[in-house]
């Protein structure tokens, strides 16, 4: 198997729901991101053999096949194809996996893995359009809202509301500190948007982190999914807009083009898990990817576990006995936001930044996914 390397990665700022990025179509947003990726890498789009993009709600402006249309918008040659995939919240992480697999197998040499979601313009669940689950499914499994699943995880692992809110507060504090110290500047691709009054503004900062967040304010928020529960808007990921993209190659191709890769893909895993409690997949996915890599938890310098809801990374941390100071060191989706299809590659881009800033060698990323699935990836800084 050939070695797959990450040459470059970019992401847009993450916009709040109905924020500044809501003024731009998602296909155009992804197109800008693909164009920015290739310019930053200094590589011609003619070298790209495929664009694999994650997107969850593939309707309206996010359909059909936004990977292909965005590549055309980005002025990629018509010979460069594109495919759009849905692995729920891990869609663009799966895009990285598919790209890596194509390269490792020698099927391709250069692939772009990307993702996009404009949850302002194409609301979550809009692709369901009023349909219901098949009785052949519901007769076998209890199909519930992810928020209810998060409540059950919190109960199962004996978490308290204060514990969840404290984790959420720390997510904001870490993200705000990262913003103030310029941590995200190297990974964010500034985006020009036209506002309602016709003025053009360059957006270069994530809109999610809230400066005034306190434990008192978080504790006052009402629960959303269960009257006597623990899950609130404050300890859940934010509805967001954004895009991300990564340029992957075989090491041989990178050397041929005179490029210096930043990371290599060490191992990948994807698992299915209980479709009812749904969000615990990162636990077995982490164990599986470590086994595939021949590594142990103590070998990993930085962990990124998507903050879909605070109980998800907390249950993962408790179950695997991980040093919480290594987890989401620049904050996560609770503070930064969670544009579904873009989050996998966005999280990996931030993990790359974290490893470079700290001088770490290995990073491990895991994302829970709807219907009980999870991807995990280990990368190594070169």
Automatic annotation (TrEMBL):
User: Any coiled-coil ranges, and where?
Assistant: none
The Thiolase C-terminal domain covers 260-381
Q: Which domain of life is it from?
A: Bacteria
Report the Pfam families cross-referenced here: Thiolase_C (PF02803), Thiolase_N (PF00108)
Q: Which UniProt keywords apply?
A: Acyltransferase, Transferase
Q: Which Gene3D superfamilies match?
A: 3.40.47.10
Q: Does the keyword DNA repair apply?
A: no
Tell me which InterPro entries the record gives: Thiolase, Thiolase-like, Thiolase_C, Thiolase_CS, Thiolase_N
On whether Zinc is a keyword of this UniProt record, the answer is no
- Per UniProt, residues of the Thiolase N-terminal domain are 5-252
Which family does the UniProt entry place this protein in? Belongs to the thiolase-like superfamily. Thiolase family.
Q: What is the protein name given in its UniProt record?
A: Thiolase family protein
């Amino acid at each position: 198997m050939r070695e797959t390397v990450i040459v470059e990665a970019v992401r847009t700022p993450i916009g709040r729901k109905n924020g500044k990025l809501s003024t731009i179509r998602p296909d155009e947003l992804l197109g800008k991101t693909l164009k920015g990726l290739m310019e930053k890498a200094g590589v011609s789009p003619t070298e790209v053999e495929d664009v694999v993009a994650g997107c969850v709600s593939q309707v309206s402006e996010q359909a059909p096949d936004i990977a292909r249309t965005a590549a055309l918008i980005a002025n990629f040659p018509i010979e460069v194809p594109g495919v759009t995939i849905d692995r729920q919240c891990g869609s663009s992480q799966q895009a990285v996996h598919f790209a890596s697999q194509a390269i490792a197998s020698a099927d391709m040499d250069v692939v772009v893995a990307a993702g996009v979601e404009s949850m302002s313009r194409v609301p979550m669940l809009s692709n369901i359009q009023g349909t219901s689950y098949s009785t052949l499914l519901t007769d076998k499994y209890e199909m519930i809202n992810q928020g209810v699943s998060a409540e059950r995880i919190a109960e199962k692992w004996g978490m308290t509301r204060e514990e969840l809110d404290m984790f959420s507060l720390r997510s904001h504090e870490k993200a705000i500190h990262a913003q103030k110290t310029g941590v995200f500047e190297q990974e964010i691709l500034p985006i020009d948007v036209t506002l309602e009054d016709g003025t053009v503004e360059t957006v270069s900062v994530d809109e999610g982190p809230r400066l005034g967040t306190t434990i008192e304010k978080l504790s006052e928020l009402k629960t959303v999914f269960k009257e006597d529960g623990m899950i609130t808007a404050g300890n859940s990921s934010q509805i967001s807009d954004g895009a991300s993209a990564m340029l992957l190659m075989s090491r041989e191709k990178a050397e041929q083009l005179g490029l210096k890769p930043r990371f290599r893909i060490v191992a990948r895993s994807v698992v299915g898990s209980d479709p009812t409690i749904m969000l615990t997949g990162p636990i077995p996915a982490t164990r599986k990817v470590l086994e595939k890599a021949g590594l142990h938890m103590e070998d990993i310098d930085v962990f990124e576990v998507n903050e879909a809801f605070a109980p998800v990374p907390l249950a993962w941390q408790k179950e695997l006995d991980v040093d919480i100071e290594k987890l989401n060191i620049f904050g996560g989706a609770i503070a930064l936001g969670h544009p579904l299809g873009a989050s996998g590659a966005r999280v990996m881009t931030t993990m790359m930044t974290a490893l470079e800033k700290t001088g770490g060698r290995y990073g491990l990323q895991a994302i829970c996914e709807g219907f009980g699935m999870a991807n995990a990836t280990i990368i190594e800084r070169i």
